[in-house]
Amino acid sequence: MSIYTAMCENVLLPLADYATRNCTMHYYRLYSDMQWLGREELQRRQDELVRETVRTAYADIPFYRELYDRHGVNIAGVLKAEDLSLLPMVTKDMLREAYPHSCTRDTGWPWREYCTSGSSGSPFAVRVDNETMSMARALMFLRANYSGWNIGDPFLQTGMTLERGAVKKLKDILLRVEYASAFDLSDRVLDRYLDLIDSKKLDYVMGYAGSLYCVATRALEVGFNRPLTGIVSWGDNLYAHYRERVESAFKCRVTDTYGCGEGIQIAAQCGRSDGAYHIFMPHVALEVVDDEGNPVPPGQVGNIVLTRLHPGAMPLIRYRVGDLGVKSAGETCPCGRGFELLAKVEGRDTDVVVTPRGNRLIVHFFTGIFEYYKSIDTFKVIQEERARITVLIVPRPDFKPEHWTSLKSEILEKGDPELVIDMKLVDEIPLERSNKRRFVVSKVGR
Questions:
Q1: Which residues contact 339 (CB under 8 A, 6 or more apart)?
Q2: What is the pTM of this model?
Q3: How many other CB atoms are found less than 10 A from the CB of residue 386?
Q4: Full domain range(s) for residue 230
Q5: What is the pLDDT of residue 271?
Q6: Got the DSSP string for 124-188?
Q7: Mean pLDDT for back-to-back runs of 10 residues, the chain (446 residues)
Q8: What pLDDT does 53 receive?
Q9: Whole-angstrom Cα distance, residue 367 to residue 121?
Q10: Both 198 and 120 in a single domain?
Q11: Are 425 and 393 in contact (CB under 8 A)?
């Protein structure tokens, strides 16, 4: 451990937590220790958290109390994680209708409203308090550790937060982050990022899978040959050809992670997991179920359903996140961590739109804009020629023409003013034949 890492973990970040009423480092230390517990002990602790979460939600949240009473659920019978199948599943639409009055509570912690469309293409608001977000941030640190990174090691991060406020800027300084916008991935900007990696001697890069792919593609094109130590991927799907190109360009392994914008960090790969993902059992109970909510056998594809094991300001219990996955049979990883394993994450198909000026618009470019338009239920972007995209929109009742005008203006400003954008209002956007939702589709050859 370097001196700066020790100072960050024991002095600087705890002080930042105190000043901002967070507790990230408390949970980072807790989760760092708990990952090495045996599966049986982890399961016991997870079961305790399941009981506490379900009972708190029933007592404090009208939405869950009415839902469980309507389905005749006796929550006294929910004693462990596997009993969660006794409860009805919850969807974004159900929570959207109940938000905020029937599905939130006062925890005494400061809270923020986060708007997210994740990979579903459907805008959705959640309320997350500081304690809940501290848990998620602690696991962001832990998942990055799986790449070899330690707190305080400088790194480049691609992201969608263009305005770095005072708190984020302070975080960037403390963690020695070089923050790079993934809104603009033109050759000129990608060259600047490669120069930054080289001049700052950065050993780690983290960010959205689509943006990492674009950086790696440019690195190979210009002959960039500085090997990195580790890369952490999140957000959109890390396709096999994405991984192959990134690892080829930077001569190191990609650590893929899985989370959702609702304040849940779900799982991450390690160097010895053979592609499987360690499920963060102290934070989330993950089920893989059929369309009726019944568990499917290990090794079979099903719907991923999540229960965040902390009620927080807005409990999420048996929340159908909209992804597909395959759970492992019960084996443990050779790395020694006791967490359950998720064999595969599927169902987050995305693509990259290349604009007339050469910018590359990844899936999170669009979700980073659409998620703030609550009058839009679902969207899909289709590119059939280089200069034009068509945006399919399923409107909500309060959708107005000026919303489209504002949204279109934002895409042009942040993406490419030469892009021609058409809109089509539709009643629904069907899933693909594979039962996946592809909401950014480019048919333009690269």
A1: 35, 39, 42, 267, 278, 279, 280, 281, 333
A2: 0.86
A3: 16
A4: 148-252
A5: 85
A6: EEEEEEHHHHHHHHHHHHHHHHTTT--TT--EEEEES--S--HHHHHHHHHHTEEEEESS---HH
A7: 94 95 97 97 98 98 98 96 96 93 97 74 84 97 97 93 77 91 91 96 95 96 96 89 95 95 93 90 96 90 94 97 87 93 75 90 87 90 94 95 96 95 94 66 78
A8: 98
A9: 7
A10: no
A11: yes
Residue 262's φ and ψ, nearest 5 degrees, are -80, 15
126 plus 190 within the same structural domain: no
120 and 13 belong to one structural domain? yes
pLDDT at res. 368: 85
**Same-domain check for residues 206 and 317:** no
Q: Same domain for 8 and 130? A: yes
Buried b (16+ CB within 10 A) or exposed e, 316-354: bbbbbbbbbbbbbeeeebeeebbbbbbbbbbbbbbbbbb
Question: What is the distance in angstroms between the CA of the first residue and the CA of the last residue of the chain?
Answer: 44
Beta strand pairing call for 230-234 and 341-346 = unpaired
Residue 307 has which token pair?
Answer: 């229960």
What is the pLDDT at residue 13? Answer: 95
The two tokens of residue 347 are 């169902």
> Helix, strand or coil for residue 16?
helix
3-state secondary structure 358-409: CCEECHHHHHHHHCCCCCEEEEEEEEEECCEEEEEEEECCCCCHHHHHHHHH
